[in-house]
Amino acid sequence: MPRALATVDLECVRHNVGSLRQRLAPPSSLMAVVKADGYGHGDIEVARAALEAGAVSLGVATAGEAVRLRTAGFDCPVLVMGALTGAEAAAALDAGAEIILWTGSFLRSLIDTVRSRDLEPARVHIKLDTGMRRLGVYPSRLTELLDLVETSPEVELAGLMTHFATADEDDDDFFQFQLRTFEDAAQTLLAAGVSVPLHAANSAAAIRFPESHFDFVRCGIAIYGLSPFQGDAAADGLRPALRLSSYLADVKQLREGDTVGYGRTFMARRETSIGIVPVGYGDGYNRLLSNRGEVLAGGSRFPVVGRISMDQITIDLGPMPAVEPGDEVVLIGRQGEEEVSAEEVASLLDTINYEVTCNISARVERRYEG
User: Fold this and answer.
1) pTM, whole model, 2 decimals?
2) Which residues belong to the active site?
């Protein structure tokens, strides 16, 4: 058994993509977002499964991620959604990726790149800032930027997009404001005789707001079977694809008063047994789970006790353990009737499930099923 293993069920990815596609209002299609190594799941493997299940394009954040997909043989549309330097933009364009545009200065840099490298016109998606206040042109400057694009043969307008700040929250007033702002901008383009694909919805909006589906949706977290609402993924027809496991390397007895780990933050209040599991924060199991987290062994829950080390954690197995060295330990996922979800771990850390899986480090072996 590997010291630390992330098992990814690609059939779950296919199921999730299929489930999301069933929600889409025609003619909307689905882009699978596989940035950050597929949210820690593996970008190449997840991309392949998502396309098999009916996704039509892929979304990433960096030029390097786009190059990696092309090198792996993917020939579908790939959109780089992050900021790019001139050199990064050149790498993305060399890979045949589409990129986002939000300022005139970046457009001028892009024109220079296309000319100097004698490239085909760059396919760009204008990103509109409807309230997120990150990358994006303000609606009041959209016409100005559009005019620059229309008079620049080095670029080809391939889309208009925005990103929602609150699609995963209960109060949807701001969401509706962003949606109206985006729809008004789309009308501005139509009035100028420009018709391009529109896209705005992330996973949460794809599930909650069919009016935001437009020409395609950009789904990330949901295709991995994780809840964009930090709740029960199954309630939205999603199946978690990732399971993080290790094993019991040793079991040792503690007397009342014995302490465990750095700083002696756990003291046994009775005779008990401690299980040593060879996984730690170097693998992405967050140190803030010290004396807080729970794991599964033998189909039962056991608390993490003592400080989490870089390479090891310790769990309290009780005075008469029903498990022994070599037995599997599950840190995220299901074992028997019990489950520790990424959402549960995220709640303990006061963060989101995205961060939990993205932080699983490269030294954790990945295996793929389905």
Assistant:
1) 0.96
2) 35, 262
